[in-house]
Amino acid sequence: MATQWREVGGGNFALTGGSNIGVIVREGRAVIVDAGLDKDAAKKALRAVADVGAQAAALVITHGHADHFGGAGWLAQQAGIPVYAPPLEAVFAIQPLLEPLFLYGGAAPIAELQGKFTLARQGVETSVPLGPGAQEIAGIRLEIIPLPGHAPQQIGIGAGETCYCGDVIFPEETLKRHPILFCADMDAWLSTLERLHTLSYTWYVPGHGEPLLGIAPLAERNAARLREIRAWVWESLTTPQEAHSILRDIAARYGITFVAPQFFLLALTTIHAALTSLQTAGEAVVEMNENRMVWRRT
């Protein structure tokens, strides 16, 4: 995907491509938001900062997925800047092996999970923990906004009239191409999406896709997809089912054929999130049956 450099509000910029990178410039200092998939993406970010006559002063990571922090270790080292991230997300950025371990149930990950999309080639050395609320980073006033769901402690960063919002929403293209959205906590994500309309920013820069003037319509389409997945998971429990068989049912509904194990495992995480949501609501229970962990409706 071609990289594009766009201004989104006074002193706020977006480097759009495979995974978007934000740049917030004030008085010659720049806070970079996310670092892309790898060193090449991070290099583009540093060049973009230099092109607007600024100097990189800090890096903020919205969440601990390799396509957003894969370039962070190199960038921080090269520019000599501190890295800020929510505590749990920072652990993944410091120890990149945790992401494939997470996806493979804690076991040593298979080779298919060791590509750079799920296993960053370089982690960050250390990170300054970020909590919610207004604060200054590198002398720039920012608002740290909790946006959990896609990742457990994902955040957005508000700067003036612009909000860099990580993977809180996905564009229409992603909804069509990858209908089973990766989700760590379905209830948290739905709650996050429901309150996005209360934010008062003009521009929204998601982690993928184009910057948006207004987020509510796309937020509702993302929420509708999550609710649909949850409803279909419940419908699949006409008889007790294992999570893998539920995923096969949901994939069939969307016409998905998984071509590699990593895509299956990413989607399986979402099925687990939907099952946890159903359990929390008292709509499904998990039990053991002949050494099978199965789910059934209550």
Please provide a written account of the structure:
- It is a single chain.
- With 298 residues, this protein is of the alpha/beta class.
- It has two domains: 4-225, Metallo-beta-lactamase, Chain A, CATH 3.60.15.10; 233-297, Arc Repressor Mutant, subunit A (Orthogonal Bundle), CATH 1.10.10.
- It is 36% helix and 23% strand.
- The protein is built from ten helices and 15 strands.
- The longest helix is centred in the C-terminal third of the chain and has 21 residues, at 216-236.
- The model has no long low-confidence stretch (mean pLDDT 97).
Features:
Metallo-beta-lactamase, Chain A, 6-stranded mixed beta sheet, alpha/beta, 298 residues, 36% helix, 2 domains, globular
CATH topology of the largest domain: Metallo-beta-lactamase, Chain A
Order of SSEs: EEEEHEHHEHHEEEEEHHEEHHHEE
| CA distance, first residue to last residue | 46 Å
User: What is the residue-averaged pLDDT?
Assistant: 97
Total count of strands: 15
Q: Major sheet: size, sense and barrel closure?
A: 7 strands, mixed
- Molecular shape: globular
Alpha plus pi helix count: 10
**CATH architecture assignment of the largest domain:** 4-Layer Sandwich
Instruction: Report the uncertain regions.
Output: none
Question: How many domain regions?
Answer: 2
Supply the CATH class of the largest domain: Alpha Beta
